[in-house]
Amino acid sequence: MFNSIFSSVLSGSSFSGSEFVIITITAFLCGLIIAGAYTVRNRYSKSFVTTLVLLPATVELIIILVNGNLGAGVAVAGAFSLVRFRSAPGRGQEISGIFLAMAAGLAAGMGYAGIALISSLLISGVGLILRLVQFGAENRGVRMLKIAVPENLDFENRFEDTFHKYLKEYSYDEVRTTNMGSLYKLTLSVVMKENVSSREFLDELRTLNGNLDISLGRMIEAQEAL
After folding, report:
1. pTM of the model as a whole
2. Which of 4, 55, 179, 189 has the fewest beta carbons closer than 10 A?
3. Is 220 helix (H, G, I), strand (E, B) or coil?
4. Which among 152, 176, 50, 40 is positioned nearest to 101, based on CA atoms?
5. Which CATH number covers residue 187?
C-alpha cells in the first residue's frame, strides 16, 4: 500500500480523462502548498504567489503533452531557456520556490502524484521551519553608520578612540567620494555597546568630522540573487 504512493498513475504514453484530472488536481494542490508556505514570514507579491500556485499545473500539462515525443521535448526545453532572459533577477527564496513548483509539476506530469505531494509538503515544511527559527539570519544588533568627512581631513584613525568607547564591534564596508570629490562618505557596520547613548556617540562624531552629515540606522537587507 505504501509503495503504491510512489508509483505512476499514468498507464503509458497515453492517458485517460480520470488520470488527467487526478494529476492536474495534484499539481494545483502542490502549488497551493508551496505558495501557502512561502507567504509565512516572507516578503512576497500577489503576482508571485499566484505564479507559484499555477506553475506546477502548467509544467504538468507540458510534460504530459510531450511524453514520448523527443522533438516536442527539445522544443519545450528551448522555450524554457528563453524565460531566464525575460525575467528580472530574484532573491534566493523566490528562485527556490520556482524550482520547487517546477519539480512538483514535473513529478505530477509523469504521473507520480504521491511523490509530488509528499515532496511539496516536506520541502515547503523544512523551508518554513528554517524561516521561523531564523536560520542563518544576520545579527540584528548590527547597525549601519555613515559618516561624511571633508576631503582635506585625514579620517584614517581619527574616529578610532570614539569607536572603542561606544562600539562593541565595527568594520569598514565602503569608503567613497561624493559631492564631486569634495567629501568622503564612510560606511561601517557597527554593534553598539550596552547602555551607551546613541546621541552622545553621534555628538562626539560630529566634533570630529566638522559637523557634516552622520547617520546611524538599521542594516538594510540586501537583495540576494542567484
Report:
1. 0.61
2. 4
3. coil
4. 50
5. 3.30.70.380
In a domain, 27, yes or no: yes
Q: Last residue of some domain: 103, 132, 161?
A: 132
Question: Would you state the cell numbers that stand for residue 210, as one nine-digit string?
Answer: 566638522
Q: What is the SS3 assignment for 10?
A: coil
Sequence-distant (6+) residues with CB within 8 A of 194 are none
Residue 183, SS3 per DSSP: strand
Domain assignment present for 137: no
What single letter denotes the amino acid at residue 131? Answer: R
Output the nine-digit C-alpha cell for 100: 520547487
Amino acid of residue 24: T
Residue-wise pLDDT tens for the chain (226 aa)? 555 666 666 665 566 777 788 888 999 999 999 999 888 888 778 888 898 898 888 888 888 877 655 555 565 666 565 555 445 555 677 888 888 888 888 888 888 888 889 999 999 999 888 888 877 665 567 889 999 998 888 888 888 999 999 998 888 888 888 887 788 899 998 988 888 888 899 999 999 988 889 998 876 554 444 4
Domains held by the chain: number: 2
- Does residue 223 form part of some domain? no
- 164 and 73 belong to one structural domain: no
Residue 104 CA to residue 126 CA, distance in Å, equals 16
Question: 17: which residues sit within 8 A by CB, 6+ positions away?
Answer: none
Q: Reduce the secondary structure of 98-120 to three states and give it as a string.
A: HHHHHHHHHHHHCCCHHHHHHHH
Range of the domain at 211: 142-218
